[in-house]
Amino acid sequence: MSEPWEDEGPGEVKKFMYVNRKAPYGTIYALESLEVVLIAAAFEQDVSMAFLDDGVYQLKKGQDTQQIGMKNFSPTYRALEGYDVEKLYVEAESMAERGLTEEDFLVPVEVMSRDDLARLMDEQDVILSF
Amino acid sequence: MKYGILVNEGPYQHQSADTAYQFCKAAIARGHEVSRVFFYHDGVNNGTRYAVPPQDDRNITVRWSELAQTNNIDLVICIAAAQRRGILDEGEAKRQGKDGDNIAPGFRISGLGQLIEAGIQCDRLLVFGD
Known about the structure:
The structure holds 2 protein chains of 2 kinds. By secondary structure, chain A is an alpha/beta fold. Chain A is built from 4 helices and 5 strands; from the N terminus they run βαβαβαβαβ. Chain A has a 5-stranded parallel beta sheet with strand order 4-3-2-1-5. In chain A, β2, α2 (75-79) and β3 form a beta-alpha-beta unit. Chain B is an alpha/beta fold. In chain B, 37% of the residues lie in helices and 21% in strands. In chain B, α1 packs parallel to α2 (60-71). Chain B is globular, with a radius of gyration of 14 Å.
């Protein structure tokens, strides 16, 4: 099959936001979402990640998955900085509803109100929700 | 308008595959272009030709193949997600030492870069998932 993109030039930078809404374990969404972010880093777009709903648990410190027989992939969030993925937003309401504070996260994040996050989403070119 | 589509859920289990298909059909009918449909997470199961749904039900995979053929849509299955779930083309089957492939006509297996590329090149990238 021919490549539909062949005749188009590279170099365009768009604002990509990855929206993470699911708990890190229980379903594969969080893990496979992180794989997208890491691969996408090679495309040098303007990338940010938002964590809301149970997605805030993805960044929780001290995850121990030994008893559920799954790989603890949370250290990978610490590697994001090396991929120039530095804009990590946590929705304040989701965080508070789950009794978490900024100190509970394993990477530096910007805590943002639901309204402000909605405004930020509005500025994006591409939103990938997982 | 040029659309890219992301399908994150498996067929039959979840309505995402149906809604994505109906959206593509409606958009094309209105004169829009759907350049690429990218299948991720359990969405990769949309692309197995070994599924045999009951005869009085829709055949989701055949429907995708036909839509793609008629409208020149690039149906891309994520390789990492496909490897986890046993979706193989001829090359992958050989590489992994498996005794056969199961990819449906019109689908191809490629990397996550194809999703990001669709996000960059299309006017809109729509996500169909949970």
